[in-house]
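Aim 2, interim progress: modelling of the magnesium ion-bound target.
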Amino acid sequence: MTQPSVGLDFARIGITGVRFEALFEAVPLAIAIFDGELRLVNANARYRELTGVAASGQAKVSIYDAFPNALADLTDQIDSALRGTSAATAARVPFQHRGGRRLIETTFAQLVEESGGRGILFAGNDVSEREDLRETLSRNVAQLESIFDVIPDSVRVFDTEGRTVRSNTQAMQDHPSGQPSTLRELWQLDRPRTVDGTSLFMHEHPTARALRGERVRGETLAVRRGVDGAPVIIEVNSNPLYDEHGKIRGAVTVERDVSVKTQLAKALEEEARRTAELYERVSTEAERLERMVQERTQELLALQEARSRERRLAAVGQLAAGVMHDVNNALNPIMAAAYLLEANAENPVAVRDYAVRIAKAAETGAATAARVGRFIRQEPLQAEREELIDLSLVCDEVVAMTRPLWAERARGGTIHLERDLAEGAMIRGITGELREALLNLVQNALDAMAGGGTLGMRTLVTDSEVKLEIRDSGIGMSAEVRERAFEPFFTTKGRAGTGLGLAEVYGIVKRHRGFAEIESMPGVGTTIRLVFPKSSQVAADIVVEEPRKRVARRVLLVEDHPDSREFMQALLESDGHTVDTAMGIQEAMELLEKAEQVYEVLVTDIGLSDGSGWDLITFARERWPSMRIGVVTGWEPKVGAGKEGDFILRKPVRTSELLAQVAGAG
Ligand code: ADP
Ligand code: MG
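Predicted structure of the complex, ligand included:
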């Protein structure tokens, strides 16, 4: 290789020949030398490698062809080097290289040769790596910066002098009216205080302490922030920054606004306190209410007791008044008659008349007494008097007995019967009383259905009870009537009612260890339910009355009271007898005389309008000695019954007794 001819006196600095060549190849630059005709005369390996152009002796490459893979036009750079305007103008030019695209810092410099010719020196420095690094670095910095900025905390970096070197976006927003450029300015704007209100000196500021090498962790301070300098609670962390020699270079301070958190915690605390207070108040109030309820309950109970005492007294008063009324009703005619009797003692017709009146009045009185008695005697029956009774059968009996009277009792209306009677409706008790109770209920039902309706009779058998229901589609009861219906002498029927029907039912049911219920609605109807304990014993276990022999008798019934007469007639007819009736002695005698077949049984009342029943009995005894004669009376007869009659029935007549006595004839 020929010695390059350059403008430098290399020889003077000791770089000659081989040394120069070694240097030429060793520098990390691509170097090419062009002569005065701008032809490539010399180039090192790096140049060849970069451009792919070989500096061969035969065909010298022109400078304009010496960079075939440069991706920018180098002409301007070459021309300005030729003009010698600048010693070396560097430009960054991309080159297409086999290893990819490279960025080369190209420098063209003028060479003035000894011959006076002007050559050009090219030096190319591959800056691709450096550029890549720079780019990566700036990308990273940008990334870090954006992270720095998106942090919701305020971050400030200070240098050792306490100057603000960097602040992130959040930090800038802390003081919108002016950015503190130093820690002192920040301290003046913030006016930091501890949570208990003590102002912080400059040197106590976390950043100041970090600048002295302290790591400040989670310190809570109150500072003034925003345009209006509103107090904000912050949590501060501050760290010293060290250089590679461990010397403090500054500090980074991170502040987090914890006002909301603090407020929330405070609010929560307050809420908890209020809740506790409320709870306290509520429980005191509850106690007070409980006490009040207790007091009120006591008062109510006392009031209720007073009311029920009042009601009991009212009922007793009513009972007494009713009895007094009825006793007076009975006594008045008796006293009047007794007085007249004495005055007319000599007149036998008058004496008989007054005697009859006395007897009738006494009978009425006795009947009332018996009914009241049935209400009063509520104590349970004595076992030995009980029989086993089929309630369904009793229902049928009462229907048979009363049916002829229905139309009249219901004032001409048609009564439709709905019968739903169960088998085995067996209870223990007294048939006569239960029949009486049922009669009263049927009578009430008929009274309620003036103009007709439906009468329901139902028996139900459960495991332990037998229920009997009498239902009507009548006028029904108001709440007040329903309340008082069982009271003796309570009636809404005026003079037509006695007010003793349901009272009697009540007493009878009580005596049978049962209870009675009323279901009623005005305008719809009424159901009276009697509930009895079911008899667990089977019929065979009990000494049952001999079933009555059903013998049809010819009966003459003498009674001037139409209700009693019709009732007894219906009863006897229901038992299969043929019954004729008479209102008084005269009529009875006529019937007896002209009868084609002799009556087998005569049943007569004592107090008759045209004389005493005893006269009729004496007359009949003489004419028909075999005739069975019964007396119906409300008062104890003075005369021996055996001589005058075969049986005596006390009013009110017990149906079973009447039927048994009449059937027993002959
Ligand atoms: P009385 O029938 O003589 O009035 P009760 O003791 O039998 O006396 O009945 C008392 C009252 O109960 C009756 O006056 C009537 O107001 C009411 N009451 C009883 N049964 C019925 C019924 N089936 N329907 C409507 N009201 C009734
Ligand atoms: Mg009645």
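The pocket of adenosine-5'-diphosphate (ligand 1) is lined by residues 440, 444-445, 448, 472, 474-477, 481, 485, 490-493, 497-503, 526 (CB under 6 Å). Residues 151-257 form a domain with the Beta-Lactamase fold (CATH 3.30.450.20).
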